[in-house]
Prior knowledge:
Helix content is 42%, strand content 18%. The protein is an alpha/beta fold. Residues 43-44, 72, 117 line the site of magnesium ion.
Amino acid sequence: LQVLEVNRNLLIKNDEQARRNRSLFKSRGVLAVNVLASPGAGKTALLERTLADLCGRHPAAVVVGDLATDHDGRRLRRSGAAVVQLTTGTVCHLEAEMVARAVEQLPLDGLRLLFIENVGNLVCPAGYDLGEGLRVVLLSVTEGEDKPLKYPKIFKSADAVVVTKTDLAGPAGFDAAAARGAIESVAPQAEVFWLSARTGEGLGPWYAYLERRLGHGAG
Length: 219
Ligand SMILES: Nc1nc2c(ncn2[C@@H]2O[C@H](COP(=O)(O)OP(=O)(O)O)[C@@H](O)[C@H]2O)c(=O)[nH]1
Ligand SMILES: [Mg+2]
């Protein structure tokens, strides 16, 4: 019972900080995009590609969370975007407070897009609002088409679901119809994109979506 209370209080505190983050992003006209997926689903690869293609038109920055190492931060910095790497130690998700501290390190003037690469997993990050304007959940074809059914909470919270690594669908024996059905049944609210950060297939609709959301007033 004690533990439940602690968790509940932590989540209430997180929600309060998330509200502050959200109003900061809104007042600055920044679209914050929380990117969630299991380890290796292709979060960093998609962000590298997205930054390379959009950064020139829409100034962007990244906050990236991992348990350990600055590998992803260094990969993402090659795009020229400002990047803050958070290492969480044993914490399996990012919290609104961590994002607030990271954002203090970023130049917000003129910024339009803030990508937040969450710690890789489909469980812990689901309950933590970061104050984002868009929540994007990735599903790679190599994970299997049933993951939305097995991890419904995170998919139910998604504004968009991005099926990644479509270039590997054949070798992986990925059943696209089953995946479509699983996403539709668990996350009917989500816009769905199919793409490969490797070949570039399907990136156009993903970029158009981000630009549409930027146009709707960020935050
Ligand atoms: N074939 C293929 N490999 C990809 C694609 N996206 C990512 N990968 C590979 O998948 C592995 C994990 O990618 P990464 O972006 O680090 O995943 P993250 O852990 O979700 O950030 C790396 O070896 C990437 O090169 C893709 O679209 N196609
Ligand atoms: Mg990564």
